[in-house]
Amino acid sequence: MPAPHHRPPSVRMPHLWMPHLRMPHLRMPHVGTALVRTPRAALVAAIAGVLLVLVAPGPASAVPAPASDLAATEVDATVVAATDPDATDPDATATHVTWGVRTASGDLGADRQNYTHELDPGESVTDAVVVTNHDDTPLDLDLYGADGFTTAAGQLDVAGPDVDPVGLAAWFTAATDHVTIEPGESLQVDFALTVPDDAQPGDYAGAVVTSLGSTDAAGVSVDRRLGVRIHLRVSGALTPALAVEDLAVTYDGTVNPFAPGVATVTYTVRNTGNARLAAGQDVRVGGPWGLASVQAEAADVPELLPGESWPVRVEVAGAWPLVRLGATVTLDPTLPGSEGAGSVGAGSDGAGSAGAGSDGARVADVVATASGWAVPWTVLLLVGGAVGALLLARRRRRLRGAAEEARVAAAVEEAVAALRATDATDDANPADANPADQGGPVPDVTVPDVTGSSDTAEHGVAVRS
């Protein structure tokens, strides 16, 4: 007998743990080009960096001085613009000068926060500004009128002295364009506003500005401007109006098919009338027929002068992807600083109604709508995958059925071919085909009854040898 076969014992190799080697992250330094400023670019930078401190709650002054030396209504501020690229500490090179500006008291009013006048075309008015030197050295200042505009921060600012006047500044005339004020002294400077005969009715804004510019030995230019706002309304037909332009809505969904996404609504508010206007905002987003409507909080539109615009971007959380998403923006305009001005409220018939301004003008609500696609891609992918799987399963069943039918047909064809081959052999060898010729027994053959009866003895014919 052969010796039994023995399987050698298996040898288990010990698991060798290799430590994970983490390659250090190499941070590439940012490579850029150096900025070289030309003298002209430096001058432009200096002008761009100048800030006008406009007196909204009260008059203004340049640098904080002791409280005992300042009027209670004066506010101090200093802005330094460095034109030297190597200058890193503007305060170290700034010339500290302190002065204040405020409205003059007289027949036009006392303790005014700013200047507010309403004139007919061809009419003029004379007012005055008071400039106070809080320093211990004489102060030389330029004085001029400047047109106003709304900044990107929503605040009123004025153009620089190098900008050609086009509105209120073109109608401004001061008794002098330069003043010298002794330490601790105040100087009242008269100025006039003369409206041309062909001036368009509406609101105009600007300021009376005092400016101090200097350049020290280090090449640092310092320009400080302090001023008081001027609001002027030219009498005539007042047509305050706002418009919503370029309204669009986009949708950013989530991977979770059962969670809402974020809709982003963008548009521009433009003052298309001739009066300065501010506005409250209401932004709503919803599906077709207002389904699943969501309201968003939007900051108020700041005061816009005629012709100015304000870009708005509002993100609305909780919006559902209902294929088509609609956005509705409603503006509620107000007339700032006008007696009797009121905010607009929509009536039951959808028409806007508002409080009247100083000349009885009425402002209507502004309603704008737009729509965009909010396709639920995750849901579509899931549904598409399910439909695709169903179609694939049906196709596979059809293929399996067709293969089974082909197999059966082939088997039948093979059986028929074999039967035909047997018949052909029997025809070629009849002796082999008849067992009686060979003396063998003949099997019983029962012929069934065509009537379907199972009684073969009565209805059948038996053939025996």
TrEMBL record:
The keyword Lipoprotein does not apply. InterPro entries: Ig-like_fold. Residues 334-358, 422-465 are annotated as: Disordered. The chain crosses the membrane at residues 373-393. Keywords: Membrane, Transmembrane, Transmembrane helix. Residues 339-358 have a biased composition (Gly residues). It comes from the Bacteria. GO terms for biological process: carbohydrate metabolic process. Residues 422-452 have a biased composition (Low complexity). This is DUF916 domain-containing protein. It comes from Sediminihabitans luteus.
